[in-house]
């Protein structure tokens, strides 16, 4: 955590007006009916869970992407933060998931989802015990249905921001899902212990607009 904080401090010397994460004040969010929600082009895929000095990434193989504004963004990895990085009306969730899609070094789309206490989470049930805490990586043999990891309702809060890890590039079109994903209290607590407070502090909004985007009828998986 100390190294990350130092990198964050250094990066702020030359920026920043559009950093993430942010607090979303729900009363200030406005629906934009001209915006189209992302179209998912996901398939069942193999994943590799890697551990780089306590940073856990779920690297994805296969032809997975989303389409935003007629541009296709390949999915490169997903990862988690605990507590949640984004807040809703100043309230953290216990966990946040980020699906990271990259078109170029200056053009990302991240689909974010927060978690709430509820029913047992099938993905965490299968893989929480397999996270390579004491080794460099773990590669399951089975395919993962990535689309099924997300909530059924795909309305979003949308804004322009940054990566929340170094180099904090202000190159991200954020889509934070309105509906939380459910997991049990014990699952959330166990994962939070592994992640060890790997969330970035909230950043100033600096006049940015947060828009509400409703899901479209043309989703595919």
Extract low-pLDDT stretches. Answer: none
Query: Which CATH architecture is right?
Result: Roll
CATH class: Alpha Beta
Structural class estimated from helices and strands:
mainly beta
Mean pLDDT: 93
Helix content: 10-25%
Number of helices: 3
CATH superfamily: Alpha carbonic anhydrase
Question: How many separate domains?
Answer: 1
Q: Biggest sheet, in brief? A: 13 strands, mixed
Portion in strands:
25-35%
Rg, rounded, reads 17 Å
Distance between the termini: 36 Å
Order of helices and strands: HEEEEEEEEEEHEEEEHE
Oligomer: single chain
CATH names the topology as: Carbonic Anhydrase II
By DSSP, the count of extended strands is 15
Features:
221 residues, mainly beta, Carbonic Anhydrase II, 13-stranded mixed sheet, two-stranded parallel ribbon, 15 strands
Description:
The model has no long low-confidence stretch (mean pLDDT 93). The chain contains 3 helices and 15 strands. It is mainly beta. It has helices at 2-11, 122-127, 185-195; strands spanning 23-24, 30-31, 39-41, 47-52, 55-60, 65-68, 71-81, 87-88, 96-104, 107-117, 137-138, 156-161, 172-177, 181-183, 211-213.
Topology, pairings included?
Layout: H1 2-11, E1 23-24, E2 30-31, E3 39-41, E4 47-52, E5 55-60, E6 65-68, E7 71-81, E8 87-88, E9 96-104, E10 107-117, H2 122-127, E11 137-138, E12 156-161, E13 172-177, E14 181-183, H3 185-195, E15 211-213
Parallel strand pairs: 1-8, 2-15, 10-13, 10-14
Antiparallel strand pairs: 3-6, 4-5, 4-11, 5-7, 6-7, 7-9, 9-10, 12-13, 12-15
